[in-house]
Predict the structure of Dihydrolipoyl dehydrogenase.
Amino acid sequence: MANYDVIIIGSGPGGYVCAIRCAQLGLKTACVEGRETLGGTCLNVGCIPSKALLHASHQLHEAEHNFAQMGLKGKSPSVDWAQMQSYKDDVIGQNTKGIEFLFKKNKVDWIKGWARIPEPGAVEVGEETHTAKHIIIASGSEPASIPGVEIDENTVVSSTGALSLPKVPKKLAVIGAGVIGLELGSVYARLGAEVTVLEYLDQITPGMDTDVARNFRTLLKKQGLEIVTGAAVQGVEALKTKAKVAYTLRKDDSEHQLDADVVLVATGRKPFTQGLGLDGLGVEMTKRGQIATDAHYKTSVDGIYAIGDVIEGPMLAHKAEDEGMALAEILAGQAGHVNYDVIPGVIYTHPEVASVGKTEDSLKEAGRAYKVGKFSFMGNGRAKANFAADGFVKILADAETDRILGAHIIGPAAGELIHEICVAMEFGAAAEDLARTCHAHPTYSEAVREAALACGDGPIHS
Ligand code: NAD
């Protein structure tokens, strides 16, 4: 008989959430993790540490730019980088220990080490082989580089290295104006680095609503980030304490060189499946190197499932978590399901950027009749009081039925505000449903209501 009902490989947000839910639903569960601490990329070298640095550097920005106007006088704080790192490490520790506590509380066994699947039903970790009815691969992703660029985590770093640089660089070159490039680029710009972001496409944050992306770029520029779009990086020459980035501008093929103390490569991530033994098992992969699954996360091999960054879909911690919960429910005989039409995306810069559902570009492309309700934070009293009036809320609704199709927010607490719209979308709400819901005053949320009002008879404060 198998030792376990379920063994999950990987303890990132997909794996640990799945493990806890499996255990809560009565399945005997173990989770294999080879890192020293639980939580995967997100907790150890991703979402959580980057938010600590974003928070700390934002406080510095507030002190430097807004305190005096509020009557808070005095010298701005200076940066003690070692202390900021130790604050960040402490935040990581609290979170990873938290997962360890939750595993104990829910009776999930942590099998320490790196897993290999020698055959369906068996998981080998070091010298030991454990057996399970169901094996779930939640092994996540790793940074992907580009030709001509070798990450050494010294002068040429991935997001992992960028979170723990020995000092704040004078000049930081960032390759890729996606989520990582702009979040970490913002951190170092606020801490005093000269930051240049090189982006291959003509727009930053590809896939984002164009309207928002344009506004976002303007605001980042105001914060001192130099952004070069249409820049094809040809290679990086890493010297001992410096690097030279060679790139061509796609519009005229002109050649350029950028000198930097550190180069951050933020050109995407790729599924991490190394060492699992998938080839030998005959697990089918997609053309993009992801594990192919059916709608119930089953791979081509019976008894083996996969969730999170290692399968198709956006590489987002919360998408992985939802898949983890859904799969646990499926394995426990319930009807687990993820609604991929309502998965929010957030960039934790200042202002934050958040989106859910369709972009205006995609609706145009699909030829769907829609209406736009837009409201600027300039008309929001709370935002003005808090020096946070940059940005807007934009709601897209079906032209006939008024059903909400998507929403895009750039502004204060956008990553929180978006969830009101997610809930509305899950309930199939019309913009009018939001517009007729009383919103407390004064809150940023009123801007969401005003955007919903703008889909109908019009907002009040613009
Ligand atoms: P990304 O896909 O968000 O952005 C990569 C960027 O690099 C794109 O804009 C792309 O056009 C550009 N690029 C690619 N090749 C290039 C080249 N040769 N020269 C210049 N630019 C080039 O990837 P990322 O920022 O590395 O993030 C990786 C993954 O992690 C993403 O899936 C992201 O969603 C996820 N992530 C999410 C969050 C969040 O939700 N806040 C934070 C960090 C990471």
About this structure: The first helix runs from residue 13 to 24. Residues 343 and 356 are 6 Å apart (CA to CA). The chain has a mean pLDDT of 97.
